[in-house]
Design brief:
75% helix; mainly alpha; chaperone; 68 residues; 4 helices; single chain
Length: 68
Amino acid sequence: PGRAVCVLSLFKALHRTRTVVFKDDNRALTAARLKINEEFQKNKNETSDENIKKVQFPFLIQHYYSAI
């Protein structure tokens, strides 16, 4: 599949994952949603396959602990 399809799949997978990981924590769910969206917006113009592969999302763990 094309790059856009892969990126969209990752975006959706991250949102599904956050609903499982932060199931009963509305504050963490909201923080993770906002951060996922923010990071994807920040990197939406990235075109390098190498840079796209390097993108990681450790902010999910970081925001989980900051939301507690």
